[in-house]
Task: structure prediction
Amino acid sequence: MFVDGLECSNFDREVFEELRGGDLGCVTVTCGFWEDTIESMDSLVAWRDLVRANADLVAVATTADEIEGIRADGRTALLLGFQNSSFLSGRIGYVELFADLGVRVAQLTYNIQNDVGASCYDPVDGGLTRFGREVVEEMNRAGMAVDLSHVGERTSLEAIEHSAKPVAVTHANPASLVPHPRNKPDRLLRALAEKGGVLGVSGYRNISGEYAASADTWAELVARTADLVGVGHVGVGSDLGRKVVYADLQWMRQGRWTRTAQYGAGSAANPGKQPPLPWFPDTRSFPALAEALARRGFGTADVAAVMGGNWMRFYHEVLPNRSTKE
Amino acid sequence: MFVDGLECSNFDREVFEELRGGDLGCVTVTCGFWEDTIESMDSLVAWRDLVRANADLVAVATTADEIEGIRADGRTALLLGFQNSSFLSGRIGYVELFADLGVRVAQLTYNIQNDVGASCYDPVDGGLTRFGREVVEEMNRAGMAVDLSHVGERTSLEAIEHSAKPVAVTHANPASLVPHPRNKPDRLLRALAEKGGVLGVSGYRNISGEYAASADTWAELVARTADLVGVGHVGVGSDLGRKVVYADLQWMRQGRWTRTAQYGAGSAANPGKQPPLPWFPDTRSFPALAEALARRGFGTADVAAVMGGNWMRFYHEVLPNRSTKE
Result:
């Protein structure tokens, strides 16, 4: 089964059809970046309506078994995720409420310090806050995967240590291969792997550098990452942003926290939306990724693990056993 | 099984113990009167914490089967209810979200006109609004019981007609027996019964008048109500407010909508909290209610129907089959 650990596309029927075209079994979608509780609930309502209108192509999954069931009847399972913990509005009790509403993945911070911890762009990282420790515990209990992709190093290390369950970096690369604040130092990735976590390797241009050149260079990035953390802890996290426009990018980068231009993983010299990767314009290229891994020398079992098996193992360990599906 | 269709007590362990003392199988509790979405979610969090801390006595039920299971292991099932639709904040999609969070009963309005319809105290009742029609449909779909207790007559009649499922008046009496704006005209009660609904007869002093004198006069009220609507459509809705203090009463009556004194079902001449009924100080008196019904001439099957069976039939028809319990 093919699994994409993180996408931030503006989904519609056409993008769902691309998921089917790539034979995707499961994708984590981004329901919000900076949204507060009410805005996040409004996003969940919109997601439910969108999924109902396209129930022949996709369904929301709330357990690993549901992912497999949805896949078995020829559809793509969606895991509902947030790239921030702002939906909590500082309430520990809301972890459980949003889990009941179907949310299964949450990044502790987006691009700035919040009440849970520091982001990868903050000059000072004081670590996982006291509230953050509570949030990690509650996410463990509720079956919500902890995502550290945009999270600062110290906060991430403390979250990995504090978590009773494996955690994820759904979309980032090793900083030792592509130096960038969004990428992860080796010691963090080793701690993640020791805990049983998974890193979703991304071909997103701003954080994959020269490895973004082709499916084969991307396969090389995967191979070197597997050398660092073990092939059992590497997955795909495309960070694909189909139909994302500049206004979306501005919202991601600036939210409401600043009036000044921010560039996220880009820079003043490179401020715009990155052009699509010619070898990965959309998820229909997932089979080509698997082929590139095979060309690079991955055996059949390892290709299957990287392309989806590792994520599925992670979901079986982290997501609840009990469905909260309608 | 004994069922109380509506209480507004400030529950704590002592009040839960009273439920067990009365052998209550199920009680609908009041999670809010005027609260908006966030405040209502905060109330649900507080309810979850309270129930977890008293899990030996009570549990939240989300289906009729769960009520019976909780009852079977010697605890009291709680249905989470709101006495207003303010938790929706005008969003149709939130009916489903709050149903997923376990809410099973909602009154369309409390004591003033809102975006759904008019209350029983409003001088003009323009009927169920366009949004109100959507809300009733969505509540039908989500398995949330429609409660019309404080709702205006025209709005109620239109809700009964529009609803695809039976609806409830969880706590009120026939106005032909006790004239009061909070009580219900015969034509409304007949429409309710024709739809398969249930009226919870209340001993609350302000709306039961002379029938509040004793368990036997209350039984007389039940008998006359059964004559009007049929014994299959009468239940108990005590409206009990254990540990409710004057500040709570002010919140119920004035909310945030007025700075002037309001008296709810009371009056300027009778503004205070009503003293407890000597024959019904708390739910430990439920067995005494059953005995009074038997003295009044109700047969065993009818006593069982009024004391809980009718509510259970209603819950089996209206609540979802699928649990949303943790």
